[in-house]
Design a protein that fits this description.
Blueprint (H helix, E strand, L loop, with lengths): L2 H37 L7 E3 L5 E3 L1 H12 L2 H20 L3 H21 L4 H21 L2 H21 L21
Antiparallel strand pairs: 1-2
The structure holds heme C.
């Protein structure tokens, strides 16, 4: 056999081997893809955690349960009410640091409430942007009369938001009876 024919045969063998190789590679890739496709997304398993496994379900279900436990805007308002009353007596005691502390906590409570119930935020915008800063300025004056005036204005604004949010029956008035344990003697 002439040398050139030998080269041609060798080349043909080589090419067909390569084609076979390619086919093999394609087959492996294709069947792997098919396997991945058929397996589909892995279903999350429902589990129970917490004391006696009270928190049940898949992750989203657990978040729903925890979110429910945080409560709505009323939960924040109960906290705001506490801050409001404490701030009042702090002012009457001329305990300005405590008054400032309570105002700051009140602001954070309302912000947390808006985070959970964003639909309430529009009615509370004036309270956050104007009323709270004005109260902060009054506290900084360290003057009981200025404090009392600002407190009266704040009270009106609590009620104004209640009216806007269709809970006008929740009427806020300056506290008359002291029940808290924090006082300056
Ligand atoms: C964003 C407007 C807004 C502002 C500002 C606001 N409130 Fe409220 N408040 C509400 C709404 C709305 C409710 C009813 C909550 C609900 O329906 O989930 C409420 C409920 C309450 C409750 C009843 C809570 C309960 O369930 O026992 C009290 C007390 C209260 N607010 C006090 C105050 C005080 C004090 C201030 C001012 C320092 C104030 N609120 C400012 C909107 C507001």
């Amino acid at each position: 056999m002439p040398f050139s024919s030998q080269i041609i045969i060798f080349a043909c063998d080589y090419i067909s081997l390569k084609i076979l190789d390619m086919r093999y590679v394609l087959l492996v890739v294709f069947s792997s893809l098919l396997l991945i496709y058929c397996a589909g997304p892995v279903e999350e398993r429902s589990t129970s955690v917490g004391s006696d496994g009270w928190l049940r379900g898949v992750t989203d279900e657990k978040f729903e349960i925890v979110a429910g436990q945080f409560g709505g805007f009323a939960r924040s308002m109960m906290d705001v009410h506490h801050r409001y009353v404490e701030m009042y007596w702090a002012g009457e005691d001329e305990n300005w640091q405590y008054a400032e502390y309570q105002l700051d906590e009140m602001r954070k409570s309302i912000e947390d409430g808006f985070e959970r119930r964003p639909a309430r935020a529009a009615s509370g915008q004036h309270f956050m942007d104007v009323v709270i800063p004005e109260m902060a300025n009054a506290i900084a004056e360290e003057d009981k009369q200025i404090f009392d005036e600002a407190f009266e204005l704040m009270t009106l604004q609590c009620n104004s938001c209640h009216a806007m949010e269709q809970v006008a029956f929740i009427q806020i008035h300056k506290p008359e009876v002291r029940t808290g344990a924090v006082m300056r003697r």
